[in-house]
Records
---
Amino acid sequence: SIIIKKLRHRGISGRPAMERATRQRSLIRTVLDRARRPLAPQEVLEAARADLPTIGLATVYRNLKLMTTAGEIEMVMLAGEVPRYEPAALTHHHHFQCDACHRVFDVTGCPGDLAALAPPGFSVERHAITLYGRCPECGPRKPGKRSVKAAHPHG
């Protein structure tokens, strides 16, 4: 319509307020880009507060939801864990979760086609692999400490 064209000419998009790029959303995007690993909402909040001390957890959650819906970021789901988020532009990759600090890291590379592992007659459409252990910051397990039970009986 003519009204929308005039508004756009003046720099007003006509999009609802929730869709506008905000300072908070821009900051959250920057936090996720800089992290180079999937972050839980609490981790996003802590990193964002370094630049914007007044940002709240509800704002982080709201923006993560909007950015996920818009396809800007992707949710990383690990069994028994809160969702984590990472930029959507990343190539196919997998994850590593530290048993000590519970942080999640990206793992580059992929073992490739896993269709041969599927039962006969099944069709593999996608896969996700999570490795578990200890990150360099947490260091190797102390001798005599028991391992966290593996999520997979053969792991």
Note: The first helix runs from residue 2 to 9.
---
Amino acid sequence: SFNISAPLARDITMSSLIAPLGGCGLGSQANVVVKIRNAGTESVSGFPLSYQVNGGTPVTETVSGSVASGADLTYTFTTPASFPNPAQLYELNVYSALAGDQRADNDTLTRSIARPALNTGSASADTTICAGGTAVLKATGGSAYAWTDGPSTSI
């Protein structure tokens, strides 16, 4: 079922999380970048935008620029989020607190952010191999390996 209603005057929507997305490139700190949309009919400015990791202390900043009706804004928090432990799943909540927002159910975005375990792989020690000789190559700790004879040539 659906409802057709008049547009709201004040309505900020959390559209998407741009960063962080998690994965192997995620370090212990990362910038939080979100896309927000002014779905209301009035331009808005000077409203609080916050994020919270795992229910911890919220980081709140003020969006100082004006966001016109129907416009999108990509906002990068100046305070990076902390993801201190590898091999952990974090819950990131990003939310707006526009005064007089007439639709609260689209003000929060929640995403799971995975920081994978650090690779603790190793390879066997360097060994000199004479032309025509053979060697046994061993590696542990990873899921895929590429052996090369230099910086760019695979063997």
Note: The two ends are 61 Å apart (CA to CA).
